[in-house]
Amino acid sequence: MSVTAAKGFRAAGIAAGIKENGNPDLALVVNDGPRRAAAGVFTSNRVKAAPVLWSEQALKAGQISAVVLNSGGANACTGPKGFQDTHATAEKAAEVLGRGPIEVAVCSTGLIGVLLPMDKLLPGIETAAAQLSEHGGEKAALAIKTTDTVHKTSVVSSESGGWTVGGMAKGAGMLAPGLATMLVVLTTDADLDGETLDRALRAATRVTFDRVDSDGCMSTNDTVLLLASGASGAVPEYEEFAEAVRAVCDDLGRQLIGDAEGASKDIKVEVVGAATEDDAVEVGRAVARNNLLKCAIHGEDPNWGRVLSAIGTTRAVFEPDRLNVAINGVWVCKNGSVGEDRERVDMRYREVHIVADLAAGDAEATIWTNDLTADYVHENSAYSS
Amino acid sequence: MSVTAAKGFRAAGIAAGIKENGNPDLALVVNDGPRRAAAGVFTSNRVKAAPVLWSEQALKAGQISAVVLNSGGANACTGPKGFQDTHATAEKAAEVLGRGPIEVAVCSTGLIGVLLPMDKLLPGIETAAAQLSEHGGEKAALAIKTTDTVHKTSVVSSESGGWTVGGMAKGAGMLAPGLATMLVVLTTDADLDGETLDRALRAATRVTFDRVDSDGCMSTNDTVLLLASGASGAVPEYEEFAEAVRAVCDDLGRQLIGDAEGASKDIKVEVVGAATEDDAVEVGRAVARNNLLKCAIHGEDPNWGRVLSAIGTTRAVFEPDRLNVAINGVWVCKNGSVGEDRERVDMRYREVHIVADLAAGDAEATIWTNDLTADYVHENSAYSS
């Protein structure tokens, strides 16, 4: 159901010919209102793709009526021509839909440093507009895939409240915090203003997408949009709505990790006993980005020494001789030294759970990552992205 | 010639039985004086192995008569017993050599979190002492190898000055700045005090070992020692001596990169046009640590978009639309966008040269790294280190 689970939205996904292999590559999501409120968060990479620069401006203008998304090209590092192309994309969608161009957000994903084939993209917008449907969410989710092996959607509904939050995501490589590298469009039929959407979205991404770190690499195109149509007429309590947005983001984030390029393990790095949440996040990221540890996990080796050497690179509050580490429930490191027998650690399953206890306070945070595999190397040495 | 190229030093390398495969695993380097000045730099990892904690103390006491080095175990994260073992190692060497224990530095390398087999290590010190020789430098270099495929030595002599700087290094994985993960012992017969050695050593490591970043992982055991015997009687000019130390460190650093685990490419990341040297180093490290770029280089794909997306994660001064990137002499990115034809980039050879021009000033720095390969994954998922 994806982005059309909530009332007031239509979507489409088509093959416009941007991808040479003929796979779907263009999605359109339209908010039919009555409200057209929106919020967004974007990559913190200082090298931002043209569609990111455009969509940031569009959001400032206050309302988003439609989102055009393409795979097959990131339109990043493409200079003034790249920005003109994004602008032309928004103009075309606005014309077809009878709205203003500044109400159209644009998202692109694919190879950096290549101009988009506008002769295919612009006619594709007309084709997609003609296929817009209240059941088009799945097709839209399919059209934004790059190296994703599956499309990702999620829906949470409040039966008592009569409102829904749904969404779609793409992303398989270049997954790193602030944000995980991806495009995400969330929709709701709740009747909320942009400020409330912004508050709920930032609260959600901070503890979900921002804590997904597949390979430490941050993209130029990350975009997460939340659009509200108000079509349900329901005005939810903020806390309930924020929790629904968080749940959808969490589910989509887990789907991104579960489909990360070449990965054979999903690794949950849970940092506890930290002096502050910032410390916990810093330690979690350092552990999640340690290539040697990621290789060890791939080899089903509970190599806790690599966890400690990663923790040691951080500025977090801790004493080396008070650190504890558990892998899949076995405390293999106690007080910075040898703990329970590492032979007891069972690592046969896809999910691996590492707990790093800093013994310095009560704060905690969880970062999700993947193992490092020969398949990751193969996929990213053979594929330009 | 290694650590015995300079006069006043003897060394030995033996198989003490620490490694189960019977390979050499214990080295001894002795300074016969007349001077016993020394300087050292150690890992900036906050989780420090017992021998690092011990050797830092020994250096503070002012003179180093001998260094005991073992492979086959890092003696890191081994608690109070691990520190006692390092202490006992120094005591044993001091006893055999007729010196004080606080004059004995200790270096260990190998698996983290496992106690050393002291019943083999202590008798090994006696065996090694009996084999000390002015020609023992190569054997010592061989005995400190872990996953190194070759041993690493280097020598620079001043013919006019009549003095020499020589050294040995080990290190193949866990190579990252501050320092590259490794053990290095340098010796000189120049007649210099500890303060001068310290100044020259820090100046050298800052621009050599500190700028080697094979896999972004920082070890718990990094140690670089510089010992002076004064046996040549020569007192070199500081600048000439410092340059010799820098040259030996640079050579050994390049040998480390050339032998990095699983690597098929040595990548020189040269950052130019930076506002400050710190900016240049930060950008160089960000590029050198980007797994996606490292995979692309492995695939001989001049994927400059991944260079830009790495630069964008830094705090360095730059404007995205003024960035330029050359790969092997071809400016594939100009003004943040598409530059010369990427088809012109020839990447068939082991060395790859990336120039990132920030167009923001005159400062520059070079970081050396490797590509990311399936062999790296294999070696580090099958081997506990």
UniProtKB/TrEMBL annotation, chains A, B:
Subcellular location(s) per record: Cytoplasm
One of the protein's GO biological processes: ornithine biosynthetic process
Keyword Acyltransferase attributed: yes
EC number(s) recorded for this UniProt protein: 2.3.1.35, 2.3.1.1
GO molecular function: L-glutamate N-acetyltransferase activity; L-glutamate N-acetyltransferase activity, acting on acetyl-L-ornithine as donor
Top EC class for this record: transferase
Subunit (UniProt): Heterotetramer of two alpha and two beta chains.
NCBIfam families: ArgJ, PRK05388.1
The protein's name: Arginine biosynthesis bifunctional protein ArgJ
Species in which this protein is naturally found: Streptomyces nodosus
